[in-house]
Amino acid sequence: MKNWKKCAAIIAVIALLVIFCLPMYFALKGDFSQKEFMASLFTVMFVAVMCYVILMLFKYLNKKKDGQEKSSMIKNVIFDVGLVLVEFNWQDYLDSFGFDEEKRERIAKATFQSPVWDERDRGLYDEETYVRQCQELAPEYAKDIAAVMKDTPKTVRRMPYAETWTKYLKSQGYQLYVLSNYSRYMLDRTKKEMPFLKYMDGTVFSCDVKQLKPEADIYQTLLDKFGLKAEECVFIDDRPVNCEGAQEAGIHTICFKSFKQAAAELETLGVK
């Protein structure tokens, strides 16, 4: 097949050279007529235009073919949980305590906006240790911080589309997985808000593997645990940095902004 294409290309190049040389040929002939010269000139112009059109058509068809081949590779859809399949509204939750503005800001920075909150998802220590670490960041509000941390599961509510979306994708034959940073304390108390878990073929929660996104290890853990090929997976996460980590592992990504936007981007990958 490759030899056939090579021969055809050589013949085409020779034919084009002959056609482009026609005006010169007629110009050098002693008995050429203006009619012959103009005919050959228009032939050259026509062939040039047609070559351009054929080239553009070839590029378009190749691009479409590449897109179809790329989309046909997607077999696995991997979901983050927080702010993708469940709501995580810590702002309204913190407002419910009625703290004054300064106090609220200090407590927010000691809890939800602190490095301790992220490390809590790694699950190396028990909940009491993480609460104590938060209290050390604002010791004057230790009692209030304990109260805030105790009811943090209240920040999580299921998204109205989550179960329908995952059920539909499962019915279309896709394998579904969860890859999420999640603390043991929160996970044990919010699973009731995750009815979509029954459609998952597997889950990797950070607290179970003691790894965090966007660290490279956690993406490889998911791939290895379930025998997945990176190029056959698409990962949906609301944080760009987590998507970048997945991309470095060779996984297709969608940075989640809304259900409509994510569903549309899945369609561009052929996931319908």
From TrEMBL:
CDD domains from the UniProt entry: HAD_sEH-N_like
Transmembrane segments: 7-28, 40-61
Record-linked Pfam families: Hydrolase (PF00702)
Protein name: Haloacid dehalogenase superfamily, subfamily IA, variant 3 with third motif having DD or ED
Keywords: Membrane, Transmembrane, Transmembrane helix
Entry keyword annotation includes Transport: no
PANTHER family noted in UniProt: ALPHA-D-GLUCOSE 1-PHOSPHATE PHOSPHATASE (PTHR43611), FLAVIN MONONUCLEOTIDE HYDROLASE 1, CHLOROPLATIC (PTHR43611:SF3)
InterPro entries documented for this protein: HAD-like_sf (IPR036412), HAD-SF_hydro_IA (IPR006439), HAD_sf (IPR023214), PGP-like_dom2 (IPR023198)
